[in-house]
Amino acid sequence: MVRRRDNASSDRHRDDFSEREFEERVEARRKRAINSPDLRRTPRKNEKNRAPLLLRVLAWGGVILLCFVAGYAGTSSMLKLLDKQSFLKPDDRIQNREDAEKLLDEDPAAALASARLDMQKVALSLFYPREGKLTEERVEIISGIREENIRDAVHRLIDLSGFFGGEARVQHIFRNVDTVYLDFSGSFVSALAAAGANPSTLFITGVVRTLRDNFPPITKVRFLVDSKVTSAGAPVDLTATWQLPR
């Protein structure tokens, strides 16, 4: 039965078209197969031609860096050009040493009066002893680094207290998270001894409260004298860590 089917099929093909036409169709299919490569093999060929991942990453990094450098250089050149044309510098600003020398040579008084210096001010609440109790006073200081602001605040407390004679000063300041170390000159102890126990205690309390309220997270104060922990001659204990009760 199988042979009959094959013979029948072969007979039908022979009836439909000639042997030459059959060969031409086979040849045409072969040419189409050659001219149209298998798409499934194309990605593999592309993968072979692609550069390694590390090399591609380095190449892109180089392109980004090149763009950044070009942009920075271009911006810098543009700003310098605008600066030379006086588009960026106001007439009443001193920008460099040459500007300052020029203004001072022309008219020192007018230069100091017209030159504008932008400085930020900060308001502080100072607590100092007055008539047996702590008195609060609001002042403004020019803001600098944190240690300089603390030094300025403590010196103002010394001046407002009135019993230091202007000799006791803070020599060094150290900070450690919530604790600040104030290193006073030697005259600090003698001034406290002359003032007495109660004014000295009020002054120490005022220092702690001033620093706590104005310079968070500071809550504790250590007092040093000539870079040493000592309480000799002082009416208060300067070896302890002072802080206000919560």
Structure description:
There is one protein chain. The protein has 246 residues and is an alpha+beta fold. Among the domains are: 2-39; 88-114, no CATH class; 121-225, GMP Synthetase, Chain A, domain 3 (2-Layer Sandwich). It is built from 9 helices and 5 strands. The protein has helices at residues 2-16, 19-35, 42-49, 53-84, 97-106, 108-114, 146-161, 187-195, 197-214, and strands at residues 121-130, 133-142, 170-176, 179-184, 220-225. Strands 3-4-5 form a 3-stranded mixed sheet. The chain has a two-stranded antiparallel sheet with strand order 1-2. The longest helix is centred in the first third of the chain and has 32 residues, at 53-84. It is elongated and about 130 Å long. The N and C termini lie far apart (109 Å).
Relevant terms:
246 residues; alpha+beta; GMP Synthetase, Chain A, domain 3; three-stranded mixed β-sheet; 9 helices; elongated; disordered N terminus
Distance between the termini: 109 Å
Look at the structure and give the CATH class of the domain at 121-225: Alpha Beta
Q: How many individual helices?
A: 9
Strand order of the main beta sheet, please? Answer: 3-4-5
Tally the beta strands.
Answer: 5
Helix content: 40-55%
**Secondary-structure element string:** HHHHHHEEHEEHHE
Class from secondary-structure proportions = alpha+beta
- What is the level-2 CATH architecture name of the domain at 121-225? 2-Layer Sandwich
CATH superfamily of the domain at 121-225: Fe-S cluster assembly (FSCA)
The main sheet comes to:
3 strands, mixed
Radius of gyration, Cα only, in angstroms?
44 Å
> Please, what is the average pLDDT?
78
